[in-house]
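lol so apparently i was supposed to do this last week
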Amino acid sequence: MLVSGGGTNLQALLDALHDSPIARVARVISNRSDAGALDRARKANVPTTVLKNPADSNELLAALRDAQLVVLAGYLKLVPRAVVERFPGRMINIHPALLPDFGGPGMYGHHVHEAVLASGAKESGVTVHLVDEAFDRGEIIAQERVPILDGDTPERLAARVLEAEHRLLPRVVLELARKM
Ligand code: GRF
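anyway here it is w/ 5-O-phosphono-beta-D-ribofuranosylamine bound
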């Protein structure tokens, strides 16, 4: 898994895969040494790597080794093309909105939920998509819709979307892993 932040999606996956015969989190890789996700990995005895330079494809490929599936969850760096090409159809990202809307450069964290509310949309959601060399543009493989409620703030919407993320990501990972 590639992470930059607190790692609640990592935690959801660790919990869902606990003792699973189908898949396990083999390594957690971050561009930030202070990412909370790294603490969660260490507590679960999952090996970690902190990247010196996330744009260095050789460094990232060495960390990924023979991974079967690469999961980006809150990873804020662009994955170099050489790395994307090494994992065709086997690298996924979770995004806290219904792509293709509200994605792309700068659309992360609270920016996403602010933009969704400002648009007047009636619903938001979660998207899991394949990673390519642009932000949030690869083929969509699963979505879950999340309602927008009267009086929603970016924080409230973010919390509701995050709950959906924690359901959708383990489901998709298990579905993909079963086919591998
Ligand atoms: C999630 O909303 C994810 O969709 C986004 O960044 C957030 C990461 O949360 N790309 P966490 O680090 O998994 O808690």
